[in-house]
Amino acid sequence: MTNEYLADRHSQPVQSDPNQEKNPVNNLGITQDGLKLALDLKESYQSKQPLMVPDGHNKLLMPEHLLNIDIDLQSLEDPLPLAMVATRDPDSPMSVAAAVRMSAVAKRTPLISEVFTMLGETSKHPVVKQCVGLVTESAFNPKIIGKVHSNAKQFVALSRKRYTEALKENLRQLIDGNLDPRTFVGEFFELSEAGNLRVDIRKRLILGLLTSDTIRPSIKFLFLENLERLPAAIRLEIIN
User: Cα separation of 74 and 84, whole Å?
Assistant: First the structure.
């Protein structure tokens, strides 16, 4: 699911124009805000907290945010937090999206180029390794970066589709009595998180399950036990 989505397609080169006036870049190619955010992201991963869009009013960070060059992600534009996501995120769509975003500025300084190259060695996701390999082997050619960016979008969309199909199949197995309720609930959260399902879709799915006459009360209780795994905004809407 990687090779055909990260090579030999046509797109425009990716350009990056981060706002550096309030957060100046030093000689190493990094910023103070970026360094602080990278450390904050490290703590979020260690505590298994969802990542949020900077100043996004409790809005979950999605791969599409990282792949949209028209969105100003503020301090998340810095190479260090992008590298943190690319290496630490357990889900390949988020990791490759961060790596692609970083590739546009990876040639800024020798240090940033080296950090980007190391992503291919430290990431556990083959798709990230391939992304880094294609970009570095091309000597950071903007056209190659553009192709990788375009195909990363398709990779994210395909990944989300497959996770959604897996959720539907699990629900069928549960209703047919072929899947243990606790396993279903655990995999529901794992698949919805790994698939980076949009907040509105995740909320609609959970509310649908909680209000369904087909789902047994014991299963609904298992969902309520796991509500802490959801972002605060979704928890409040479900409770209210």
Answer: 16
Residue 27 Cα distances to 31, 80, 108, 146, 210, angstroms: 9, 14, 10, 26, 54
Cβ 148 vs Cβ 99: under 8 Å? no
pLDDT in tens, 47-63: 878 788 887 566 788 89
Same-domain pairing of 211 and 187: yes
How far from the centroid of its chain's Cα atoms is residue 227's Cα? 20
Alpha-carbon gap, residue 61 to 71, rounded angstroms: 12
Domain that holds residue 43: 3-155
Which residues are CB-neighbours of 127 under 8 A, at least 6 positions away?
Answer: 1, 2, 5, 6, 92, 95, 96, 155
Residue 99 sits in the same domain as residue 151: yes
* DSSP labels, 106-148: TTSSHHHHHHHHHHHHH-S-HHHHHHHHHHHHTTS-HHHHHHH
136 and 73 in a common domain: yes
Report how many domains make up the chain.
2
AA letter at 101? R
Residues 128, 216: one domain? no
Which of 125, 155, 185 represents a domain boundary (last residue)?
A: 155
pLDDT of 103-113, one tens digit each?
Answer: 999 998 999 99
* pTM, to two decimals: 0.74
